[in-house]
């Protein structure tokens, strides 16, 4: 302990004696450690921070599995309400099972209309989670026993702060929800946003009020076993293993399939721990890989910083050889010297870590500031908690050991006879061309190239994504969304409103066309329904396949610029009482009728007796993501399939922003109580669809540039140190007739050789990394050759430029002065 305190005090004195070196080292480490801490803060909030519920380790999320719809986004499916109700009554492995579903609602507070998200949940929802209100109360099972008898809501803490100005007198206040009066009974605790980490509802409503809250498909198919629209959270009983509970769910699934063979054919149930399911399990691998990529990149930045500091310490150790030799000669052990030098390195690293926390806070705030619009209200906890602080301390200490060990080992074994002589010159050329400092220079170059190429691949991916054809014309296209069901419009009134909104918008100067549809492309997708083609009853490949659907006005495809491939579109002959018809896309035609013309073919949706006849085939479009493979999709005429939640699309002659405000005003005048949302040009949707690519490319580019700067500084330091150590040798060469140009080329050639090895290693590593991250990229099957070559040339240029300055200084050495240095 005494030695440790002495080492710490000596390390602090050493740092004070070399303020320039200390400042450079601490700032360099702060950048590397701060970047790691900032990214880890986000990862910690997503993956490691517990949800604020009671005993979360015993909570699980239950999902439907379907043999006919497996893989990708269909691996873990929601549950139908009738199946969820049966699970509640049959399962014995759980002490409580709660059912819930999110839906959009219209809310009016003090005359101001807004569109928010409500979670309709069974009465035991809060009891199962073990969550108590911050004040007021939550609803209970007894509140949920009679349909329509509990018009009460529990507000999220975030909504309470935003909408009600954190007024505690909100309890008992009445608000209009979907045009009906509801009473606020409580406010959820801070940080609680249901079972999700990202997003979350604005309020909770008892399931007994589903008739008043749900609209559209959720209301129509509430009691259909085929409609997968609900989530389940359950609490395992004490002493019940996960294996036993899974087997019980499979048994229940088998029994329900026997009892209800048509809707439950091929379906069963499984569960995942809630702490894992708090991120959509179908997307968790994508989030995990994205987080791994980010941590790998900032890890590279830190390793480059460590290599940089290692070379600085190696150069500094050369000036301390006499000091260390004297200590060894006086009896100090080599281990004692190594311990002292490692203590100095770790103290430097801890100082860098302390400053890095400030860098992390700035970086974290910037990351959150540039989050996508759909996370604007997300309550993600990005505080630097104990886990983050432990992580920062660990990487600071580890970094100190990494960059301090090699210089400590080398400095602790000097040639005592040589070093104790009274001489001040640099080392004479020893014939060993490739030294330890060159190893770290190679590492810097290789790691920097990996970071640069990684950033280049993401930029290349972003460029490809921006050029991708979404399948519709985005030029001067705008939108406005509304939900008539949220104000309890009856079918006739809704139909009249739709007619008036189209007439009103089409009459606005500069509007070329206007149309209505249920879905917004590239904005979360739409409803999936099971398709049963005529004659495929015995087929397991095509029978009951889930397909996306969209309810559209007759001129939707023309307005959106989606061409018909064959057949015809919807026209005036399509009426409410006429034969039910559809238009499908090319992917659906290939999926269901690969060897025949789809026009004229028929199919049924599950739960319906009427056949749907295909009258046309439209070109494939993008529905969920820009990078998706061609996906089957079906267009239904809105007149035969009325919907309440719709989006108005309109195309203008001038840029959409010019007339967007006017169109919004005209639509709002039709019903001032109707909340209007997604009032955007279509470019906003495209921008949100590209957010992940743009954010990743930007962030990786910043980190790559930091790595490039650190690498350049490191190369400059290594070459400068090498030149300083060989001043006498250079003087002898010039005295024997060498020209300045020869010395310049000699230094550059040695530097280029070292960098060449680093570039070669970096290219191989980049190719391997590229194959690992390729599924996160658009239109990139492997590391693009132009990216590899371009980034290697950029790094080589920067490296040679950093080498040129000390090389030019070496070429101007005066031989007489150099030879006196002995």
What does this entry look like structurally?
The protein is α+β, with helices and mostly antiparallel strands. The protein folds into three domains: 1-44 and 281-371 and 384-422, no CATH class; 56-277, no CATH class; 477-689, no CATH class. Helix content is 49%, strand content 16%. It is built from 25 helices and 21 strands. It has a six-stranded mixed β-barrel. Strands 13-14-19-16-18-17 form a six-stranded mixed beta barrel. Strands 12-20-11-21 form a four-stranded antiparallel sheet. Strand 6 and strand 7 form a beta hairpin. The longest helix has 36 residues, at 334-369.
User: Widest sheet: strand order?
Assistant: 2-3-8-5-7-6
From the N-terminal CA to the C-terminal CA, the straight-line distance is 42 Å
What would you report as the Rg, rounded to the nearest angstrom? 34 Å
- Low-pLDDT segments: 422-434
Taken as a percent bin, the fraction of beta residues is: 15-25%
Number of DSSP-assigned strands: 21
Shape: elongated
Instruction: Give the helix level as a range of percent.
Output: 40-55%
**Structural class of the helices, strands and pairings?**
alpha+beta
